[in-house]
Design goal:
- With about 260 residues, the chain is α/β, with parallel strands linked by helices.
- The chain folds into two domains: about 1-20 and about 155-265, Skp domain (Protein Binding, DinI Protein, Chain A, 2-Layer Sandwich), CATH 3.30.910.20; about 30-155, Protein Binding, DinI Protein, Chain A (2-Layer Sandwich), CATH 3.30.910.
- Helix content is about 65%, strand content about 10%.
- It is built from nine helices and seven strands; from the N terminus they run ααβααββαβαααβββα.
- It has helices at about 5-10, 20, 40-65, 70-110, 130-140, 160-165, 170-195, 200-235, 255-265, and strands at about 30-35, 115-120, 130, 155-160, 240-245, 250, 255.
- The strands form two sheets. It has a four-stranded mixed sheet with strand order 3-1-2-6. It has a three-stranded parallel sheet with strand order 5-4-7.
- The two termini are about 20 Å apart.
Length: about 260
């Protein structure tokens, strides 16, 4: 995630001022799931053991091949090859399990009348914990059954931050900041070569960090503030009580990504 995306993701849950009150006991259509707890399901545990065994063998092959690399290009090619092999194996093992889990979440959510299910990591108070129900369903022999109806309208919204980061204005600002940071790193490294004391080195690092912070405040903070304001305005118009990043949505929710993109163009 980019610098803008990382900062905005932290602020998204604060985009609607009424959220803490609204997510209290009076809200009954919001659920949450502890995704880490799914690792205790025998099928998941077995898949993870198989993946770790595969990785151990892959690591040995990688160590042998990387020693034969003669150039940086050869090293990059070998690294990419083994990363791709691991990712392919991971998808093969966990893809079907995750698809089955999504159906289980949808089935449980529909049975409980939930309009959205969030990742437990972002829930501090309120909501219904459906973790046990999902685990029980996934631990059974029969496959979960997809609900007939789509999720009901939700007052919890979400945006796909990767799409926001790809907008020309935001990408240009992010690229400019990355270039500035790289330049400052080179300057700091050159200065470090001539540093004679710990005090000198500490000052160089402090100067570097101050320059980075100042540039971020000047170029990125206005974009973050404007994006947050846009999200808050759209959430208010749509009567949303909360807006989160897509990565925190497991089921349902109201997608406002296109609305935010249109307002930021």
């Amino acid at each position: 995630m980019s610098k803008v995306g990382a900062c905005l993701a932290v602020l998204l849950a604060l985009a609607v001022g009424a959220a803490p009150r609204a997510l209290g006991a009076d809200v009954t259509d919001i659920g949450y799931l502890d995704q880490q707890a799914l690792a205790t399901i025998p099928r998941y545990a077995a898949a993870n053991r198989e993946l770790m065994t595969y990785k151990a063998n892959l690591d040995r092959q990688f160590a042998q091949q990387i020693r034969t690399a003669r150039t940086a290009s050869d090293q990059a090619r070998i690294v990419q090859y083994f990363q791709n092999r691991f990712a392919e194996r991971q998808r093969a093992l966990f893809g079907p399990l995750l698809a089955r889990a999504q159906v289980a979440v949808a089935q449980v959510a529909a049975s409980k009348g939930l309009s959205v299910v969030l990742d437990k990591r972002i829930v501090i108070v309120g909501g219904q914990d459906i973790t046990k129900d999902v685990i029980d369903l996934l631990s059974g022999v029969a496959d979960p059954v997809p609900p007939v109806n789509t999720p009901p309208p939700s007052r919890v919204g979400w945006i796909d931050q990767t799409q926001i980061d790809a907008l020309p204005k935001i990408k240009a600002a992010e690229d400019a900041f990355a270039r500035f940071q790289a330049d400052q790193e080179r300057i700091a490294q050159d200065k470090m070569k001539g540093a004679k004391t710990d005090a000198d080195r500490s000052k160089i690092m402090a100067d570097y960090q101050n320059a980075i912070d100042a540039e971020q405040k000047k170029d990125l903070q206005p974009i973050i503030d404007h994006t947050r304001s846009v999200v808050a305005d759209i959430a208010k118009k749509k009567n949303l009580i909360l807006v989160v990043d897509r990565s925190n949505i497991i089921y349902g929710g109201t997608d406002i990504t296109n609305d935010v993109k249109a307002a930021l163009q």
